[in-house]
């Protein structure tokens, strides 16, 4: 675990923190601009120079009133929005530089060839930094961070500033990195959808304070939590491709809420993170026929939460798991919905991220 505790004072802003991040999977740090997300990464990396915040990485006390481990000895990898590569070196030279600086240690020494294959940068090796596209430079920057053999990887908004198409190209690489599980990743972003697709654990910050933390699935389903006040509620589950229909470019995903049809290409057996926005789930009293909506799941209403703004949240039991739906108050009354009612959940959109 990474334990961060203490107070950091800047002129008119302060960080007051006491939180523990797991050292497995991806921990997301979310919050509005100026909440202190990057500051936390800088504290972990030892770039803030304040002894008033203590940081413990597993059994190692990195900083406290009377302790300080310099940044280079913490062995953190850092990737930010702007890939900082050496412009006078080609891609291979940038990677070789990181490799020379890596400290050999037991545990998660990384196989260079595997990183190159995972991030698909083999064809880029001879290119100069100036020749790389934004997405390619970001992948090289990730490889460089991995080549330094870090014990934790810190990602500061690596997708920010990328256009949606390029973001979709980079996200799968992050997902692959996560699945490879070389080291824990702390991932800063203000984008809720990216977080739902990538993170396992989530910390939500506001004005330098932790407002909410927990598993990604819990936080995106907590309709009274801070996160859902700022971002859309979602059901986040893991799925696996059980069949492929190449002619229709669609696949069937086995998920805890039932079998779901998704339009996209994937190989049978692939594991996927599936995110279903509550507002993309409609309710019907009858099974749907002759509709373009492909997913119609039998469900039962488990809980109802009304909110003042004209919406009602429904927690549905689907196949033994929970699926969240958001319907208008008007529809809720027209259908005379109540707890215990059998209904059908109609799913129009799914966001999925493949392994
Ligand atoms: N070097 C600095 N000196 C003084 N104040 C700073 C410094 N860096 C950041 N701040 C202030 O500290 C606060 C937290 O900044 P931080 O960059 O951690 O926020 P953030 O949540 O990462 O924001 P964003 O999403 O906009 O990047 C902000 O009020 C910012 O203006």
TrEMBL record:
Every Mop domain range: 290-355
Record keyword ATP-binding present: yes
Keywords, sorted A to Z: ATP-binding, Cell inner membrane, Cell membrane, Membrane, Molybdenum, Nucleotide-binding, Translocase, Transport
Every ABC transporter domain range: 2-232
Superkingdom, natural source: Bacteria
Signal peptide start and end residues: none
SMART domains reported in the protein's UniProt record: AAA
GO-annotated molecular function: ATP binding
Tagged with keyword Cell wall biogenesis/degradation: no
Transmembrane residue ranges: none
Name the record gives this protein: Molybdenum ABC transporter ATP-binding protein
């Amino acid at each position: 675990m990474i334990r961060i505790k203490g107070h950091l004072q800047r002129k008119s802003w302060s960080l007051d923190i006491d939180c523990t991040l797991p050292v497995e999977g991806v921990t997301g740090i979310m919050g509005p601009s100026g909440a202190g997300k990057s500051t936390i990464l800088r504290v972990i990396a030892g770039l803030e120079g304040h002894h008033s915040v203590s940081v413990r990485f597993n059994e190692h006390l990195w900083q406290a009133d009377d302790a300080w481990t310099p940044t280079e000895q913490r062995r953190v990898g850092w990737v930010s929005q702007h890939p900082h590569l050496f412009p006078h070196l080609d891609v291979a030279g940038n990677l070789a530089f990181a490799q020379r600086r890596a400290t050999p240690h037991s545990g998660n020494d990384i196989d260079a060839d595997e990183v190159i294959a995972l991030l698909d940068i083999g064809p880029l090796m001879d290119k100069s930094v100036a020749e790389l596209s934004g997405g390619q430079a970001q992948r090289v920057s990730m490889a460089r961070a991995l080549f330094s053999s870090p014990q934790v990887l810190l990602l500061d908004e690596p997708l920010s500033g990328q256009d949606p198409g390029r973001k979709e190209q980079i996200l799968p690489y992050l997902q692959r990195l996560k699945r490879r599980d070389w080291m824990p990743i702390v991932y800063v972003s203000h984008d809720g959808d990216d977080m739902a697709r990538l993170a396992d654990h989530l910390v939500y910050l506001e004005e330098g304070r932790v407002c909410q933390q927990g598993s990604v699935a819990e936080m995106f389903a907590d309709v009274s939590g801070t996160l859902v006040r700022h971002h859309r509620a979602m059901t986040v589950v893991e799925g696996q491709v059980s069949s492929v229909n190449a002619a229709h470019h669609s696949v069937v995903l086995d998920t805890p809420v039932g079998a779901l049809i998704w339009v996209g290409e994937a190989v049978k057996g692939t594991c996927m993170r599936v995110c279903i926005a509550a507002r993309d789930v409609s309710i019907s009293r009858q099974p749907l026929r002759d509709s373009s909506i492909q997913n119609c799941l039998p469900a039962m209403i488990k809980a109802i939460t009304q909110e003042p703004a004209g919406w009602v949240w429904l927690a549905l039991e689907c196949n033994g798991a929970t699926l969240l739906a958001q319907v208008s108050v008007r529809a809720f009354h027209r259908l005379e919905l109540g707890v215990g009612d059998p209904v059908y959940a109609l799913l129009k959109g799914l966001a999925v991220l493949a392994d």
